[in-house]
Amino acid sequence: MGIYFYSFNNGLSTNQNDWGSFGSYLSGTLGAAFAFLAFLAGLENLRYIKNQQLKEELIHTIKSYESNLRNCYGMLVTCEEPWIWGHSLKASGEIKELPLRTLLESDSIDWQYHLAHLSTSLAFRRQPNGELFQDRDIWLMAFSASKGLFIYIELYEKLCGKNPISSYYRNTYEIPYNRLCEAV
């Protein structure tokens, strides 16, 4: 506006044509600036939408790995004579199989020995649903699921920072993940 008044400094005009010319001048100069700002806002909106989609895909992948790990938790594995705290040694001699969850979460059992043994064991266990699996395959499925879970948690934290979602998964699955890693 200053340039316009500097160039045509006759003061405020009472002529309607002068005001029409001034309006055309403003729309020509400011219209381009507003169009450019709208373009930048559109780009920012696309970046935001892409970021949100990436977050949703990461959460979906994390939930998928969590589901795979939880399926492994319920699978029965060979556990010959586990040392169980607080129980008689006779009772522990009768145990031949346990859910993998017991080895991954319990502190009342000698999990170090049994998880290391599972990673190489060729013993077969019939699962509650009737399927037959080798112990090492169950261990490998659980290890792969927990490894994938933590890889995607780290990606999610890089994108979103530490937040309640990543803290929940870390707190819930860090001990089983560490135990599976130690058994390698």
What would you note in describing this structure?
It is a single chain. This protein has 184 residues and is mostly helical. Helices cover 70% and strands 7% of the residues. It contains 7 helices and 4 strands; from the N terminus they run H-H-E-H-E-H-H-E-E-H-H. It has helices at 2-7, 16-73, 89-93, 100-105, 111-118, 135-160, 164-182, and strands at 76-78, 97-99, 124-126, 132-134. The strands form 2 sheets. Strands 1-2 form a two-stranded antiparallel ribbon. A two-stranded antiparallel ribbon has the order 3-4. Strand 3 and strand 4 (132-134) form a beta hairpin. Helix 6 (135-160) packs antiparallel against helix 7. The chain is rod-shaped. The N and C termini lie far apart (74 Å).
